Amino acid sequence: MLGRLNPLVLALMSVSWGLPAAAWAQAETPAVPAPQTLKAVTVSATPLSRSEQDLAAPVTVLDEDDLLTRRAATLGETLEQEPGITSSHFGAGASRPIIRGMDGARVKIVSDGAEVQDASTISPDHAVGLEPMLSQRVEVLRGPAALLYGGGAVGGVVNVLDNKIPTEMPENAVEGSVELRGATGPRETSGAFELTTGGKGLVFHAEGLKRNANDYKVGRGWAGGNRVDGSYNHTETGSVGLSWVGDRGYIGLAYTSQRNRYGLPGHDHAYEGCHAHGTHLHCPDDGHDHGDEDGHDHDHGEEGDSHGVPFVKLRSQRWDVRGELRDPFAGFTRLRVRAGFTDYQHDEIEGDTIATTFKNKAHDGRVELEHAPIGGLRGVIGAQTTRRDFSALGEEAYVQPTVTRNNGLFALEEYTVGDWRFEGGLRHEWQRIDVQGGAPDTRHRGTSVSAGAVWKFAPQYSLGVSASRSHRLPTAEELYANGLHLATSTYEIGNANLKKETSNNIDLTLRKFAGPTTFSVSVFHNKMDNFIYGRTLDVYQNLQLLEYTQHDATFTGLEAKVRHQIDRIFAVSLTGDYVRAKLDGGGNLPRIPAYRVGTRLDARWQAWSGDVELSYVGRQDKVAEFETETAGYTMLNLGAAYEGRMSGTRYQIYVRANNLTNKLAYRHTSFIKNAAPLMGRNIVMGVRLTF
C-alpha cells in the first residue's frame, strides 16, 4: 500500500515543502496579480474563539456557501469529500461521518455544542437526528479542544451550527431564505425555508424542510439491477425558536420535530432463528458451513426474501436551551450554557407490522466559564452531565434496556508568547450504566489530557503539534448486546467485562494560510490500548457472528489539501488522505477506508462559478478476518452556479453532476456495501433565495 501511495505523498510534499527561499526571509513575491488569504473563520466549537490557522490540530469548516451544493440527506454524505472524513453509508436514510477510520461513539456529533441524542451510535442503520439542509455551518474538530465534548471523541467532534435560536437581532424587520432543489438519481424533490423576525429584544425564528427521495440509481453493471430496493428517504423537519437578545448576551429556547421514513436495504429474513453457540453460529439449516474454505464470507447484504424491504419510521422531539452572558461576574469574561432534551423513537417495520422499536429519552447539559487572563493564561472551565434511557423492544431487541449516566469536568487553557501559542486540555468523567435483564451494572471513570502548540515560524506559515492521552468508556451496546441484528446481517454479543480504552495520539500539521498557494498537511499516529471493536468469529452465508472484544491497535495516517490560485479566475487543488489501522501483533481492523486522492479545478468570473473534480479511491485489500476486499474506483463531478440580486433579494442558482461517468462503486466502510452500492450518475439542481 505504501508503495502505491508514493506518488500521492511525493506530490503533496513537493507542493507543501517547495517553499520559496524568500519565505524564510519573511517575504514572498506572488505569482499572480492578487495574492489570496484564507478567510479567518472563528471556530465556535473552540470556546476561546480561535480561527482555523491558530489551532494546533487540523480543523475543517464548511460555511453556508460551501454547503450549498454539498448538502446531502445525511451528515455522513455531506462531509465525505473532506480529507480524512468518509461515511458509514447505509442506503439513503442513514450515514454517520467516519474520521480517520474512527466511527460510532468515537465521533461525537453536537448541535451548537449540545450533544445530539439519537440512536445513531448504536447501529449504522440508525439516522443522525439533525438535518444538514438546515445547517448554517459545519465544523469538524480534532485535538485538545475536542476533549471538552468527551474523552471518547478520539476520532473528532462534528459541530453542526444552525439558527433555530437567534443570537442577535436581525438587521431588517424580517430575514430568511427559501431553497428548492431536485435530483435525478433518487428522483428527489426537497424544499427548505427559514424566517427570523424580532424587535425590542425578542427574536423569533422558524424553519422547516420536506424531502421526498425514491430508490436511487446505481452505476452501470450492478447485478442487483438498476436501483437499490429500499434506498428511499422521506423527511419532514420543523423548528421554532424564541430568544431574548441584550447588550451582554442572549438566552433562547427552541423546539424541533423530526419525522423520517427510510428503507433498510440488505435486510435479510433468511437468518431468522439463527443463534450463537459459543463461538459458532447455528441456523435452522443444519447443513451450513462457517464461511468459505479461505476463511472469508460471501458478499454481505444480499437482497432479502419475499417479506419485502423493511423500513424505519422515526419520530424525534427535541428541546434546546442556549445562552451566553458576557462579563457575568468578577474574574470571568463569558458564561455559556447549552442544554437539550430529546424524546426519540424509531420503529423498524416489516410489511404492516412493527418488528422492533428503539426508544431513547435523553438529556444533556453543559456550562462553560471563560476566565479573565491570569498571568497571560486564557482558559475555560466547565461541567457536563448526560443521561440516556435507552430501550429496544421486539424481534431484534439485541440490546437490553439501559440507563446511562455520564458526568464530566473539563478545562482548556492557552498561553501565547511571541510566535508561539500553547494550549492544554483536561477532562475527567464518571459513567454508570444500569441494565435490566439480570446483567451486571457497570461503572467506569476516565481522565483525558492533551497539549498542543502552534508556531508561526514565518509569515503565512504555521506548524502545529498536538498530543493527547484520552480514555473512552465502553457504551451500553458494547457491554450488553446479545442477539440478531438483521439490518447489518450480524449476531452481536457484548462483553460486560470490557475496560476503558486508552488513546495515545500525536498530530503534526503544517499550514500555509496566505499567498497564491495555500495548504494544510497533517500526519497522525494513534496508539490505542484496549481498543474495543466487533470481531467476527464465524459466518453463515452472509450472517456474521460478531463479538465485542479488546485488543491493542495502531492508527497511522496522512491527510492533506493544497490549493494554488493560477490567476484571478482559475484555481487548482490537490487533496488526499490515508489511514492504516491494524491490530498490534498482526491483523487488520474491519471497515477501514481506503486511501483517496483527488484534484479539482474551480473558476470564478463575475457572478458565475464552476468546478471540475476528479477523485480516485484506492482498493482496500488490508481486510480483517471474514471481510471481503473492495475494488477502487474513479469519479468525475462537475458543478456550476450563478449568483445575483433582484430587488434586494440575493438568489443563487446551481447545478451539480455527481458521478458523471455512472461508475459502479462500493464503500468499504459500509456493512451493506454490496447490497447498496454508491449512487450512480446524479444531477442536482436548485435555487436559493435569501432576503
Molecular structure report:
- This protein has 691 residues and is mainly beta.
- It has one domain (2-380, 555-690): Maltoporin, Chain A.
- Helix content is 5%, strand content 54%.
- It contains five helices and 35 strands.
- The strands form five sheets. It has a 22-stranded antiparallel barrel. Strands 3-8-9-6-7 form a five-stranded mixed beta sheet.
- A hairpin with a 4-residue loop joins strand 25 and strand 26.
- The longest helix has 16 residues, at 2-17.
- The termini are far apart.
- Residues 1-35 and 288-307 have low confidence and may be disordered.
Number of strands: 35
- CATH level-3 fold name: Maltoporin, Chain A
Principal-axis shape: globular
Percentage of residues assigned to helices: under 10%
- Tell me the domain tally: 1
Spans with pLDDT under 50 lasting ≥5 residues?
A: 1-35, 288-307
Subcellular location: Cell outer membrane
GO cellular component, one term: cell outer membrane
Membrane topology: Multi-pass membrane protein
Family: Belongs to the TonB-dependent receptor family.
Brief overview:
With 691 residues, the protein is mainly β. It has helices spanning 2-17, 21-24, 64-67, 75-79, 476-480; strands spanning 42-43, 50-51, 59-62, 85-87, 97-99, 107-111, 114-115, 137-141, 156-161, 174-183, 188-199, 202-213, 233-246, 249-263, 275-277, 280-282, 311-329, 332-350, 353-374, 377-394, 402-417, 420-435, 442-458, 461-472, 482-485, 490-493, 501-512, 517-540, 543-565, 570-583, 596-605, 608-617, 633-646, 649-658, 682-690. The strands form five sheets. The protein has a 22-stranded antiparallel beta barrel. The chain has a five-stranded mixed sheet with strand order 3-8-9-6-7.
